[in-house]
């Protein structure tokens, strides 16, 4: 009962502070926001504002009311009235509502929070919607430090070539006299762009790009990259046996929502661990572990059924597959990787040889304590049978039995 009353009291206090926004009786500060023709003067309370944004607290030090009780005044021309009302509601009540805001509005909110030094709001918005910020029409107005924080992230859920192209777009916006066609740039133009992006270039995962993306989107800008970096990139595409440079960033994390059932695999690190295990076995390419992975859902037991017949109908003819199996009644996932194509049958005994297959087990969705086992009997790595599948050696076998889920 005491805990409930405490919660009620906090809610009522928050609501009372928000209600003060419509009560001018005790206001002692006016804030002019926006630029002509969209300007609005908002009345507020100095004591409340001093408790939250560091920017306003510093500004109010020099704007204290005099003995004649004159109202203090602050100008914030870069923040629109609509955006500041959202910020003000957050300052008074701790509520940040984004339900009715489009990407452009959210970006404006991020910029306003950055200007007012509301770091917790900046962090929240960058964590919640990093990809949407890039897709906003106004993203080029981001301060450099905000752009850097975004492209540092592992969870952008964007192709690396898109990240690179957005960074280039931002760089061009900072230098409006530059042409969008690098073929027309002078030596000085390349130096200007290199200087503009000097803090961003090291954060791009260039080695994750496909050869096509490298040729079309990076090569035209090679003069803004360090010579050794460009040479290493070129080697990675022309000679897979060349050695990667040290301290190369790994690809960004993979989105699994809608592709891998999050009721089965709840921890993205498990997917990352398996992906990197696949790459280690690709001995033909020293740069394989730096490339992006694209997952496609072939079969889902809860949707398609659990029988080998359905498995072969949906998976035969497909190679480089990962199977995830949830053990019924346990918080454990098992599965395996098959680099070969799946078939219903294969020759005399149905077995196929490979050194690259492996099986795995993860308990409690913990990637760190998972077990990954490479194949021992490479001649019997995968078994093809119309009444069974998937079938990994003698370790993981799925027969026509619906009880195995």
Radius of gyration: 28 Å
* Percentage of residues in DSSP E strands: 5-15%
Question: If strands are numbered along the chain, what order do they take across the biggest sheet?
Answer: 4-5-7-8
Largest sheet: 4 strands, antiparallel
The total number of structural domains is 3
Secondary structure: helix percent: 25-40%
Q: What is the mean predicted local confidence, pLDDT?
A: 79
Total beta-strand segments: 11
Count of alpha and pi helical runs = 15
Shape annotation: flat
Domain BTB: 27-100
Domain TLDc: 263-405
Protein name: BTB domain-containing protein
InterPro entries: BACK, BTB/POZ_dom, BTB_POZ_domain_cont_9, SKP1/BTB/POZ_sf, TLDc_dom
Description:
This protein is an alpha+beta fold and 405 residues long. It has three domains: 113 residues, Potassium Channel Kv1.1, Chain A (2-Layer Sandwich); 94 residues, no CATH class; 132 residues, no CATH class. It has 15 helices and eleven strands. The strands form four sheets. The chain has a four-stranded antiparallel β-sheet, covered by helices on one side. Helix 4 packs across helix 5. The N terminus is likely disordered.
Topology, pairings included?
Blueprint: H1 2-19, E1 29-35, E2 38-44, H2 46-49, H3 54-61, E3 72-76, H4 81-93, H5 103-115, H6 119-128, H7 130-135, H8 144-151, H9 160-174, H10 187-196, H11 211-218, H12 227-238, H13 268-280, H14 301-304, H15 308-315, E4 321-326, E5 332-338, E6 351-352, E7 358-363, E8 371-374, E9 382-383, E10 388-392, E11 396-399
Parallel strand pairs: 1-3
Antiparallel strand pairs: 1-2, 4-5, 5-7, 6-9, 7-8, 10-11
Helix pairs in contact: 4-5, 5-6
């Amino acid at each position: 009962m005491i805990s409930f009353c405490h919660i009620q009291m906090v809610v009522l206090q928050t609501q009372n502070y928000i209600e003060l926004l419509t009560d001018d009786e005790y206001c002692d500060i006016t804030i002019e926001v926006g630029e002509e023709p969209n300007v609005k003067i908002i009345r507020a309370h100095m004591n409340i504002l001093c408790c939250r944004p560091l920017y306003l607290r510093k500004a109010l030090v020099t704007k204290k009311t005099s003995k004649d009780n004159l109202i203090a005044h602050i100008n914030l021309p870069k923040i629109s009235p609509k955006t500041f009302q959202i910020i003000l509601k957050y300052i008074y009540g701790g509520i940040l509502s984004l339900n009715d805001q489009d990407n452009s509005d959210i970006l404006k909110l991020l910029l306003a929070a950055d200007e007012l030094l509301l770091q917790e709001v900046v962090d929240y918005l960058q964590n919640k919607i990093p990809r949407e910020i890039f897709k906003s029409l106004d993203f080029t107005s981001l301060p450099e430090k905000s752009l850097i924080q975004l492209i540092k992230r592992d969870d952008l859920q964007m192709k690396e070539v898109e990240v690179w192209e957005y960074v280039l777009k931002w760089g061009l916006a900072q230098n409006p006299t530059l042409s969008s066609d690098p073929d027309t740039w002078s030596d000085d133009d390349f130096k200007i762009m290199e200087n503009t992006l000097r803090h961003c270039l090291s954060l791009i995962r260039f080695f994750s790009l496909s050869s096509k993306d490298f040729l079309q989107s990076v090569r035209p800008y090679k003069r803004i990259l360090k010579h050794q970096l460009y040479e290493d990139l070129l080697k990675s595409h022309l000679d897979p046996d060349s050695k990667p440079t040290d301290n190369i960033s790994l690809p960004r994390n993979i989105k699994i929502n809608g592709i891998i059932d999050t009721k089965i695999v709840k921890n993205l690190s498990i997917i990352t661990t398996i992906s990197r295990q696949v790459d280690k076995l690709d001995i033909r390419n020293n740069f394989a572990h730096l490339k992006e992975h694209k997952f496609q859902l072939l079969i889902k037991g809860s949707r398609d059924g659990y029988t080998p017949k359905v498995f072969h109908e949906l998976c035969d003819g497909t190679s480089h597959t990962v199977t995830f199996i949830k053990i019924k009644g346990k918080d454990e996932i098992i599965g395996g990787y098959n680099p070969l194509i799946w078939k219903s049958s294969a020759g005399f005994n149905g077995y196929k040889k490979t050194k690259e297959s492996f099986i795995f087990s993860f308990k409690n969705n913990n990637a760190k304590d998972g077990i990954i086992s490479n194949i021992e009997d490479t001649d019997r790595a995968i078994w093809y049978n119309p009444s069974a599948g998937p079938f990994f050696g003698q370790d993981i076998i799925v027969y026509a039995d619906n009880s195995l889920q």
